[in-house]
Structure to design on (1348 residues):
């Protein structure tokens, strides 16, 4: 950390900064410029607490040198590490496509969609049993009944299943059924939930919060890893910006950036990232071309009657076309589907 | 809801839209313009689900006419409704100032700050026992021990106490000690938590999510109200924007807007809203001038040694000056402190 | 336009709205719902002015039904229209790549870069002679001398040239030398400049403003077209968001969306869109996969000594590799390079 | 500037960084930490160009220590400097309120509004003769005719006049009539325009760009000052964020922050900053409470028939009430109106 002193600081103010630095376990190294004096805090001290010294009278600002995540960082010269889900591997040469309805609505609809996405080449079935909804008056999912339907769909199709978990106390329940635990965008900084999924050994699909920076996203992953669960899959799903023509702005830059900064696999959710079914196909191609390790896509057999997210769900027939196009883009960037 | 049809839609596409409208319990009223045809869905049907028809082939877009919150809305011609906390009233003529440290760190520090803010005119003591932190390596609060210290501080000073609750299963525990349950910005859309605090009768201080629109903020309040708890205090605490000179951008527009749209009292948090102790004073004055019903402010006796949020905490002496200045602004806008 | 009346409006307030509607050349069509009454303004009146009626006492809000651009809109069922630059065509099957230094610095450097990008397959040379710079103390370009160097580079390499024009009064000067007039992001709403380039017949490369919505971007294009110049190439170059890990957030959603809404070709600038040379390659591939008609890329032979934008410029050797990879992605989406 | 080297950099990469540092006129001072090595560039070299070294292979990132504005900065211990407009002073104890219509529409309307705002206590008349409009089909102002009407209104009322200038070549024309030259938000980074108004001696009202950071805003002021014109008035007018309930988000934090960082007076525009006439009053009070040196407000006698910005214009009667309320808030913060 480097602490920049205000022009005209007093010797006592400077001394106070050096005292705080050593109080927190660091050594002070002065940097004397023409217009400003800085003091580097060198060593392995208590970073979070030292930051507070920004409030001291002699301090202009505090500059952090090192990003605070460690377990999920990519070590220079090391390869990324795929996450294994049974015989599947997320983050290897072969892309993984997760597909299915936003909410699980009925056995008939779920099974039909599951069969269709499997035939098209998806290997994981998505479907919400517990649904976070902006309105308290909206459908919040079938709950445990939905989990049972997912398990049946897995038995019939062989697809792995991913579904969202919303509270620490339901983590064990959901983990009994699901192959992958999804932490939704609205819960990316629900720290008790992150710790709870971190205490399982299940793979976790962690979606980026809609206003989370890349650093905060990796810190959320660090929470999961800090409890001993290294099996984390990151998912870029669009951030909130001033643009209203699309529901969110898919941050395509984040895909290669996350691959550089972290050892974790990176998926993209073009359904939430655009909010429009008619943009899902081109944006999915873009995600693969940017280096994503896979996609998670909302597919519905009757989008206009869907209980949630119909406007961004695609028909199975369109999903089939999407998989054909993705195969070609995957090949162009040295991957397979 | 008004559904705008695409130019060149077929009669079958239009019929499909009218069928969906009646399927969801509405009546169709056509609006024929020069360049577009719209169909209004009139009546009291299932709004959330009808929205999905944006995915239909003949539909250009769906325009919502009415905001979806009801219980927390301000009814035309009705006054706002203060929230009572024992003998205190939030939302009346007298402003309510909540103050205290970000985290509870020790008995000595907490009691000293409590006495100081009380002497300056605060009526509620804030202090975090359970702390959401971006890094898993940062201090996460004293937990139950912190709650005990708060209760002792209340006994000694007579201040009411407000503290954050982070999970549904700890709501009862926190509610035993606290006078006001705080739901933090990162949990504004933690829907199970909203429902859990909604099932208590405790006043709830609901902080706006850092990327929540005013409508989403009111919908979160509606969640709490939908479970039978009408005692909700809204708190504007800064939104995330492109500006990095301040930690967040305090949305001053939201203060009078929330007062217009909702019957609920509105507080402002200038500490998080600016992230800089040297801006807390002028922005506090602005909040009161804009019509806020009170403030929640971080005060620390040694900000540069604070475990969290030191850079935005003010000294008790500065808090005293702030209260004097606020009293004058309050008077200028017809309120008291 | 649809005008929603406030609940509890008086008959006189409603009459006033209907009077304004007919005053501006429209016909009123009432839409009576359970909770709100709306009045549609039907016909071909003065839209901009009618919008002002949002200020009327009986009005809750005004909803626009139709986007206000016409000349640049894509007519349903019609193909997009390529822009011709001599024998080149932007927006056809073959992608167009524009490359070169941010600023023109010297003849030697420019000619070297020009030869290198041409060898790699670029067909247009970019280079700034007049440079908008955030600081008045930064290099502002070689001006007319820079234009001369561009013309020489064209003579030697056969590349077309694109360069920025910053004021209405220099449009003719720049148009004498350049094949394409670039309007920079900071000038996207410099309306006198848009009108001035609209009065030439030169192709215009219009960059999206860093905080412009897709609709505002198309309205800026409409300005150019409204003066009789239909030869407009849109360029997505990243928008300003809360994310600071990259200089801007490249809005990949905008690429297919602009192709849907408009008849104009769409380029992507991955250099400004990311601000990091090490992200240019994957994001370029993503742009092509999303359907972009080409790219504009900053290439410099000694990026670390560049006068501007060195951090986002790539070496000619890396550009060569990029073109090879793009060729494969282009092929995968049915285009050529 | 401090250059952080990548972990695992080679000695040659480090040497290259030190060479560049000395090449640009600085001296290298190494800072060796546990996990990273930094090199401070000390002295008075070429900052803009050194920044480009972020592209070098051994460099992780470049951290700027000092803000790049000088002429407009507030020197520690010095008071802010008011700007004089004849006998008026902007930035002194007495607040300055500028008021008038968005566009000048007719002599009758302008003179009526001018008399009304003067009676209420405004000292400057605002009114647009040259209007930037998002749509090419909207009214763009009366031009020279509008300037003449402003001059007549000044003669009649004694109000000073402020009006927008949009191109470098019309600066002299506008400066002949206006007392204050307004540079609009969309032109905040129209650098040729900034230089042109910098070459006059007229006071300049510089509005913040809708996506400009505080630092960029001050750099734009630095442009004006760099040409010899120190008479600059800053104006916060709302920034673009994700919130759509208001037209822009007025950045109240920026008001005290600009006063700290700069010697220039700071005005607030609550009309554009909110976009809603019914929020203008409370937000005006907030601006004064936060320390603004004045306001610029849109007033129209028939807002619902206004040619532009009717929805955010207030009636003269409401402006009168606003001035009464402002007088009280001004008094509470030690100012007069």
């Amino acid at each position: 950390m480097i602490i920049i002193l205000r022009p005209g600081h007093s010797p006592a103010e400077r001394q106070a900064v050096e005292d705080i630095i050593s109080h927190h376990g660091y050594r002070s190294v002065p940097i004397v410029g023409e217009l400003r004096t800085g003091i580097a805090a060198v060593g392995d001290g208590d970073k979070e607490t030292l930051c507070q010294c920004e409030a001291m009278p002699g301090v202009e600002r505090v500059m952090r040198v090192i990003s605070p995540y460690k377990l999920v960082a990519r070590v220079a010269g090391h390869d990324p590490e795929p996450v294994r889900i049974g015989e599947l591997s997320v983050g290897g040469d072969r892309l993984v496509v997760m597909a299915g309805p936003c909410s699980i609505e009925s056995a008939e609809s779920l099974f039909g969609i599951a069969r269709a996405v499997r035939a098209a080449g998806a290997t994981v079935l998505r479907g919400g049993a517990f649904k976070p909804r902006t309105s308290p008056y909206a459908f919040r999912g079938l709950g445990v009944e939905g989990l049972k339907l997912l398990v049946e769909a897995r038995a019939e199709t062989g697809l792995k299943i991913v579904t969202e978990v919303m509270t620490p106390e339901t983590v064990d329940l959901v983990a009994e059924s699901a192959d992958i635990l999804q932490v939704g965008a609205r819960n990316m900084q629900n720290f008790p939930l992150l710790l709870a999924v971190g205490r399982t050994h299940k793979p976790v699909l962690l979606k980026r919060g809609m206003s989370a920076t890349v650093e905060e996203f990796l810190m959320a992953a660090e929470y999961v890893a800090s409890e001993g669960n290294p099996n984390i899959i990151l998912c870029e799903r669009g951030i909130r910006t001033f643009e209203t023509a699309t529901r969110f702005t898919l941050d395509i830059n984040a895909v290669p950036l996350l691959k550089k900064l972290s050892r974790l696999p990176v998926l993209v959710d073009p359904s939430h990232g655009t909010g429009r079914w008619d943009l899902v196909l081109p944006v999915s191609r873009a995600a693969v071309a940017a280096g994503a390790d896979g996609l998670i896509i909302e597919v519905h057999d009757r989008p206009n009657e869907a209980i949630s997210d119909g406007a961004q769900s695609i028909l199975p027939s369109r999903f089939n076309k999407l998989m054909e196009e993705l195969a070609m883009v995957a090949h162009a960037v040295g991957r397979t589907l």
DSSP finds eleven helices and 14 strands in chain A. Chain A touches chain B through 54 residues (CB under 8 Å).
